User: Which sequence fits this backbone?
């Protein structure tokens, strides 16, 4: 009986110590996760859920901030990008790193291209026009990325 009591007590103490040191990750979707942050990289965050050894990865664009449980220090990760229509096209970001989209919800696919073989635009001008067109189409769909 004494061994069972000590076993239960030790499990309870370990779970309480994790609860006190658990980090909080606040996602732009409004979801809050109690996790243990392993690493904050250039474009991703690696974390673990309580009681699990499997590491999870999420792109920084899906996370607003992290509050570290041990020190209660908060770190802003990214600002939420709000796009409400085509006029917000300049706010749209084009992501080229596949890891940075982890954790984001997939929306409509947007494609763009430059003019054909005969064009009166320079290559730089054509790229700017294509980029603007892609961003406007994404903004029309309400997509910030």
Assistant:
């Amino acid at each position: 009986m004494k061994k069972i009591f000590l076993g239960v007590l030790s499990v309870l103490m370990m779970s309480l110590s994790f609860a006190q040191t658990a980090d909080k990750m606040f996602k732009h979707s409004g979801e809050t996760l109690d996790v243990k942050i392993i690493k904050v990289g250039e474009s991703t965050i690696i974390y673990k859920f309580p009681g699990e050894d499997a590491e999870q990865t999420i792109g920084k664009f899906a996370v607003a901030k992290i509050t570290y449980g041990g020190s209660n220090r908060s770190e802003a990760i990214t600002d939420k990008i709000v796009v409400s229509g085509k006029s917000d096209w300049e706010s749209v970001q084009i992501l080229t790193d596949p890891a940075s989209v982890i954790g984001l919800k997939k929306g409509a696919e947007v494609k763009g291209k430059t003019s054909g073989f005969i064009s009166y635009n320079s290559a730089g001008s054509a790229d700017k026009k294509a980029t603007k067109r892609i961003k406007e189409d994404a903004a029309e769909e309400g997509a910030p990325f």
